[in-house]
Specification:
With 349 residues, this protein is mainly beta. It folds into two domains: 2-264, Sandwich (Immunoglobulin-like); 276-348, Immunoglobulin-like (Sandwich). Helix content is 6%, strand content 38%. Strands 1, 2, 3, 4, 5, 6, 7, 8, 9, 10, 13, 14 and 15 form a 13-stranded mixed sheet that branches. Strand 18 (299-303) and strand 19 (309-310) form a beta hairpin. The longest helix is centred in the N-terminal third of the chain and has 14 residues, at 2-15. It is elongated, with a radius of gyration of 24 Å. The two termini are 37 Å apart.
């Protein structure tokens, strides 16, 4: 089974566009989670090396020459260990912001994510069985294993995004949230700041979250991700002037194999801090396995709360009596000393 999984992952990575490129997703510390308020202050800690700008985009439809006086975009992506969310900071200057219409005629930041690198088509128009009813495909296939968000920049009197798929609920709390900051009117120039997060899904069902499966995120995991900027510059035009694409392949909007690789990075400056978790192996025998989750530790001392101790990194301890225990882990390493106590997390009968 493990070999099969490795082959699947390897195949998924090989199938992605721009295989020579591996973009990075910044890890925010758990105590520095970005607040979705349209401000950039929370992102000041993100190195500029994580920024993805216009130099990485190509207009794959109209082949418009790049002109930063017309459109200039910068994007940073982040994540938080323990949360299955992707955070985005989108900063853009446009010489003509188009957002008066109530339909898709709007400047758009189109984001596509494939959280488990399943690859392949995911919109009803690309269903592999050509005789399959497109209406049925909408409810069983469209956006199920990879998701497409048409994010309106800005959204004026309409929802912040259109989920191009059968699961519009994924753009609502707690699965997504967005905030804007701008000071211009339709047809004017200016800078827009958009801050948002989304939740990628391995399986996003039409029926709702009950049948759905979130993509699990962990350090160094690679995911499929890409975006396009649809730039309207004429209120009367029937379509966009530019389709600026990170993937460099237009069909990224409906085929997850045409996305690019993003890696979920470890903390830039890991904090030396003791941490641990536990699993009750046998409640009747009161046997508990403890696991050191600290970073950079070289020595360990466990106090199990019953007078017993251990110097092992991952000890298994048997309690003689039922009770509610206060357990402390002390660690030492090149960066110093630390301890972590959990009060009454370990409760045995």
């Amino acid at each position: 089974m493990r070999c099969c999984l490795l082959l699947i992952v390897a195949f998924g990575l090989a199938a992605l566009e721009r295989p020579e490129t591996n973009f990075r997703v910044f890890q925010f510390p758990a105590n520095r989670i970005p607040r979705i308020d349209g401000k950039t202050a929370d992102w000041a800690m993100v190195p500029e090396s994580y920024s993805i700008g216009m130099d990485q985009l190509q207009d794959t439809v109209n082949h418009t020459p790049m002109n930063r006086k017309d459109l200039d975009v910068k994007v940073k992506v982040g994540w938080v260990k323990g949360l299955n969310r992707l955070y985005f900071l989108y900063e853009a200057y446009d010489n003509y912001w188009d957002f008066r219409h109530p339909d898709l005629h709007n400047d758009i930041f189109e984001v596509v994510v494939d959280g488990d690198l399943s690859g392949g088509p995911f919109i009803k128009q690309m269903h592999p069985v050509k005789t399959y009813d497109p209406n049925e495909a909408h409810f069983t296939f469209h956006g199920v294993h990879a998701q497409n968000y048409h994010i309106f920049t800005p959204a004026d009197h309409k929802d912040w995004a259109m989920v191009w798929g059968c699961q519009p609920w994924i753009k609502n709390l707690p699965y997504a949230n967005a905030a804007y900051d701008y000071n211009f009117k339709h047809g004017e120039s200016g800078k827009l700041t958009l801050e948002f997060y989304i939740t990628p899904f391995d399986y996003a069902a039409y029926e709702g979250p009950e049948r759905s499966v979130e993509s699990k995120l962990w350090e160094n995991k690679k995911i499929g991700l890409s975006w396009s900027v649809l730039d309207y510059d004429d209120d009367q035009a029937k379509t966009y002037r530019g389709f600026w694409n990170l993937s460099h392949k237009t069909s990224m909007y409906g085929n997850a194999s045409d996305l690019v690789a993003f890696q979920l990075m470890p903390l830039e400056q890991p904090v030396f801090d003791a941490d641990w978790s536990f699993t009750v192996l046998d409640m009747d025998r009161r046997q508990v396995a403890f696991h050191d989750d600290s970073r950079g530790a070289a020595q360990w001392k466990w106090e199990f709360g019953d007078g017993k101790t251990s110097a092992e990194q991952h000890p298994v301890h048997r309690y003689e009596k039922p009770g509610e225990y206060v357990v402390t882990l002390y660690v030492e390493g090149p960066a110093g000393k630390s301890r972590r106590t959990k009060v009454w997390d370990v409760v045995l009968r």
